[in-house]
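Final report, closing paragraph on structural work. Over the funding period we assembled a curated collection of sequence-structure pairs, and we close with a single example.
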Amino acid sequence: MGSKRYADRTLGYPTRKDTEKLPRQTRVKNKTPTPIQSTAEHLIREARDRQVAEFRPPKQKLTDSTKLRDYRLRKREEYEDLIRRMRWNTGVWIKYAQWEESVNEFNSARRVWERALEFIDHGRNAWDRVVTLSPRVDQLWNNYIRMEENLGNVAGARQIFERWMHWMPDHEGWLSYIKFKLRYNEVQRARHIFERLVQCHPYNLSAWINFADFEMKMGEVDRARNVYERAVEIFLADDHDEAEQLFVAFAKFEEMGCNCKETDRARCIYKFALDRIPKGRAEDLYRKFLAFEKQYGDREGIEDAIAGKMRLQYEDGVRKNPMNYDTWFDYIRLEERVGNQERVREVYERAIANVPPAEEKRYWQRYIYLWINYALYKEVDAGDLERTRDVYRECLKLIPHKKFSFAKIWLLAAQFEIKQLNLSGIFKKYIEMELCLGNIDPCRKLYEKYLEWSPENCYAWSKYTELEKSLDETERARAIFELAIAQPILDLPEFLWKISQGEYARTRALYERLLDRTKHLNVWISYVKFEASAMSEDGGNPDTSEDLREQKKQSIQRTRISYFSISSLRVFEEAINYYRTSVPELKEERAMLLEEWLNMESNFGELGDVSLVHTKLPKKLKKRRQIASYDGLSVGYVPINLMLIDNSHYKRF
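Its predicted structure, as stored:
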């Protein structure tokens, strides 16, 4: 039992003896209010009456000179002790000197003042040496300036600040100077110091915000807005990391700083910032914009803010894993709901740029639907048919058809061409698909159907012959070309000469047959270029030896005489005679032909005969009309017009 009581006592639990000593709870029987209620004023008055008066020593009257001398000695010892403990406290020195004056000890008072001034000079010299040796310690400058300001030396404190500012301290040092100016109501000088601050630290966000707050306190709203605008230009020019915080502060200034609460300006600032700051650094900006729209915006504005926040999340997702196509689909659906076509196009382009790393169909099954959705969006929503065709074309070019393909994309491309009534495009897509799959016979059948539907299409004829030439089927290619030439109508007849390039005799004969069909300018020029190409085949390789160069020059001369002079010159003469005699009204075509001839002669340099062409070029002739006066006398001539005439028919009069 004793051990339990001891344990209770050591653990701090109340024992039975302790509980018996506790007073009983007092029960109030009369709960009616007293007639006189105690108020707060009554309690304060009562407490003041009960305060003990401050003890003041009684005044002493010294009638003995010895006691007076002892009193003065004691007071001087007290002041000297205070000075030893607080030499920097000017109040102690002043009280000491004033006491000496009160007891009519003017010489002692003068010595106290001189000692105080001497101490101040010593302190000023010490501070000057300290800030000279350690100019980067801001606390030393602050203490030095505080001493001068306590002494009332405002001009000296200003000079110390200027010395400090030459060392370009941090933001806090400049703010100390500005507060010093404001203590003496020098507002314009404080504004000038703010300008120096933002020039010294142009990327210090706090400096710009403090500058704008200063202008707001002075009531200069336009100046404050100008400060923010200047800061925005500097921070955006170098893509500074704190640009987001600057825009938030600027928007808050427009929202709450102005008396009129420019919410429209604040909204424009938020949107401007969201368009220019990277999504990864705009989290706080989106959050503040959403809170702003909830407070001041309408339903559309709130939805835009929410979309911006979702956009930030999707950007973070695609940045971490660009091959996550589900995130791209969600991102694209968000932009399509917003309705900004330029942004939708940008997201689609970024999404399709993430090509699967391996050429295995299982990696491409989700990716291919990005292209399909992109094409359908361009066709249905944007209405850009040409871009839709380009999307299908680029997608089909990207797919490795030799390993796998997607029938859906082929069908959609064909259905698009059918809807546009472009059967030529359907044939091209179908033939391209069969070629990718290596099916040659179906390609031939498709080309046959293509040419049955459009026999005047020279592009189809040329592609068909190129297919046969790629298969080394020269006879089939030649037969197809013969069929093309035999067609009564061709859209680009001069385009067909490329098919037989390299076989000069056959090509020359084909050109002659083309000229029987059409005398178009392009046919003549193409024929001439073909004849010139025959000459270039015999040119050989350049050599540095003079003998070889001379032999080459003679060879080129002979080649020109044999090929160009005979063949090309003949073609040029026939073409010019045709335009001069058969169609004299086509003067521009004849001039273009002569210009082509002149260019070809000029390309031969010394071997070219430019004079041969100059004699045939048209010349500008100025005609004049005689002017007669009222009495019939001639007074001069005036020009009528300019006329081009053929040099071969020009005669001098």
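The chain has 31 helices and two strands. The longest helix spans residues 546-581. We thank the funder for supporting this effort.
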